Amino acid sequence: MLIKKDLIFNIYNKIIMSRFQNRRWLVIPTAITGSINFNEVIQNNAENLRLSVDESETFVKYEITEVTESFTETHIDVEGNEFTSSIEAGIYGRPSFYKSEYKEYNHAEILDLLVTPDWSRVSEDNSI
User: How far apart, in Å, are the Cα atoms of 66 and each of 23, 33, 70, 125?
Assistant: First the structure.
């Protein structure tokens, strides 16, 4: 039965993955949930956060834009004035409380994490 669940989960994961290419999940300690600006993440409030089984961690999700190459553009406004704007290569859209010490996941990675015993209670019949 577990093999069938894994197969279904893997097929679902591959189909759905393309829907969330720019979404990221950031696992954080629950102690910092007061630092979350909920305008920067998809969740609305702390009550909507999923907790790990031991309640020491939670996660937030957000959309990112990844710029792979720096570039500069020249623009001309309606009055004929020319100005330039530059964009540096990098990842944009991370919340202000982001720290590299917190683990950031893509969709497939967070799904793998959430089925572990740290994030899902397993009953005696091995169902989640």
Answer: 11, 26, 11, 43
**Hey, CA dihedral for 87, 70, 18, 117, is it positive or negative?**
negative
Q: CA 83 from chain center: how many Å?
A: 35
Cα–Cα nearest to 30, from 60, 49, 57, 61: 57
Contacting residues for 94 by C-beta, under 8 A, at least 6 apart: 24, 26, 62, 64, 104
pLDDT in tens, 74-108: 999 999 999 999 999 999 999 999 999 999 999 99
The highest-confidence range among 3-17, 86-100, 111-125, by mean pLDDT, is 86-100
